[in-house]
Amino acid sequence: MANKSDISRNACQLFGAQAKCGYDWWWHSFTARNALTGEEKPFFIEFFLCNPAHAGAKPTFGQLGETPSYLMVKGGAWGEDAGQLHRFFSWQETDVAWGVPFHVSTGDCYVDEKETYGSISISPEDAAAHPEWMCQSGSMSWKLKINKKIAFNVGYGAGKLFRTLQLFEMFWHAEGIKTQFEGEVIWNGQRYIVTPETSYGYADKNWGKDFTSPWVWLSSNNLTSKLTGKKLENSVFDIGGGRPKVGPIALKRKLLSTFWYEGKYYEFNFSKFWTFTRTFFDCRETESQIIWHVEQKTWLNRMVTDITCEKKDMLLVNYEAPNGKKLHNRLWNGGNGVGTVKLYHCGKLIDEIECKNIGCEYGEYC
What we know:
Low-confidence stretches: none
Number of helices: 3
Shape: globular
Structural class: mainly beta
Helix content: under 10%
């Protein structure tokens, strides 16, 4: 069953070979409203761990020709003033709970299954002087409660055996494809209020030895039926993947996805071969937009997803791989996507769904 919580997959995975060449991150994205104007704005927060076996007294950076080793706290916003801020800590400054439930604590920054808080402040002078930080200038602080409502458990591909053997180059678990956040964010001096019902939140994690190319992600729980006009309060979809690698073997372009539709799940998972999942996707960049078209089928079900996001509201999000290389230099990332999903069962249209506040990502190595 796709909607199956498994917080053991949220534990830190940087052991064995992945301790020497590996990353592990916890991602959170959500929507807030300006406390004065009521303007809606999406935000993201991520705790990114890299290469604990190379830990030193200070963070080290692949962009400076070193083996990267650090905790990076990433925070930012999408929209007209989109920006990403990175704050780095050494492993010696960082406390990680390696068991279940997880937590990561460093400085005034903290995350676990139930809450996160922290701050980042980057001056224009520091951002210009430190390109290895891979970020802009600005400030952000936050204090949030986290309530994960619906999970996407991809199955044995991220199960205990595969995690122990570290067979995939990049793993994925989404403990909270529908997550309610509550609290506040201060973004560049402006206060934003986060309420559970309108946070449209999302929480997942990735870990492994390297990233995927292409890299695709789409998710939303702000959904309305175009057939009935009703808001779908117990629904969410999530699509992710690109070109998975098992050891040195790269598989063909594949995506994992689920649609939890008013309490019933529809899953399109290539690792569950008995469902005969077939996927076609086309992602492209125009002068002003990123456009996604995804079609997936099993023996019984079909899902057709069409999403757009304005580039002016997006970021070119930055990461360096554990080997120190930065190959994703046009990884578009946004939180303001809009579009539709059509869901079919045995050839019959179940619903056509209007989707807003879509978390979205697309990029290929360049």
